[in-house]
Specification:
This protein is an alpha+beta fold and 281 residues long. Helices cover 59% and strands 13% of the residues. It has a five-stranded mixed sheet with strand order 2-3-1-6-7, with helices on both faces. It has a two-stranded antiparallel ribbon with strand order 4-5. Helix 4 crosses helix 5 and helix 5 crosses helix 6. The longest helix is centred in the first third of the chain and has 78 residues, at 25-102. The relative contact order is 0.09.
Amino acid sequence: MKKKTRELDERLETLLAEEQYVGHPLRDALLELRAHMEDQLERIERIASLSDAFQSMARQRELSLTDRFDRQLRRLSRVVSISDRYQGLMRDINQAVTDASNHDPLTELLNRRALMAALKEKCKGVEGEAPVFVLAMLDVDHFKSINDRYGHEAGDRALTALARVMESELMDDAVFGRWGGEEFLAVFDGGDADAPRAVCERLMAVVRDMALPISDHISLKLTLSVGITIRVPGETLSATINRADAALYASKQSGRDRLTLNEAPTVAALPSTVVPLKARA
């Protein structure tokens, strides 16, 4: 109760208690009015109390809902985080599977499957243009004798070392990889063989100067034989590969550590079929 209201109530109570007002017609009415006001005041106080309790309950409910929402949000954040990590893991696994399916496990270069996909893509060319490219097939000379004399581990080391040299010498010029066994393939853009020939000759010189340690007293020397051809527009991919393979065979037949250029499918001096790898060592 406010101070002013309390003072008024005390004043009224004092006046009504005086003897001079006993029996006055307004005294009973004022007493009834005073009782009625007290009753109304009690009701107002109960309503205010109920209102305060309701507001307190509403605030508690709101805080409870907020707390529950925050907890759910934290849980959702953890789920999202786990999902992101899982998706990242799956992307890494998928990428690893893709890399494994497209790369040779020993040399880490593109494998035959990936090279064939790249060749088929190049054969599509650009709309309105005849797709041409230069194909180079490279083979390690006398590789079988390396395995026979020093063991397959030495042969694997030789192929790995050659792969690193190819990455250094061919990375900016060609798509390349391990075609099979000791044989490698490189694909150069364009229809002019001069630049690819110069790149391959440089690679051959670097390999020729290599000395691969086999033991404390033995270093292995390697050489490459190379066959190059230019794809003729409209011909099958198989025909282009066979022609590069025939050029490589010609290099082997002419003494190894050689490069042979087979420019057109009508070159008469070269065989037209693929020669088994074992015949080229």
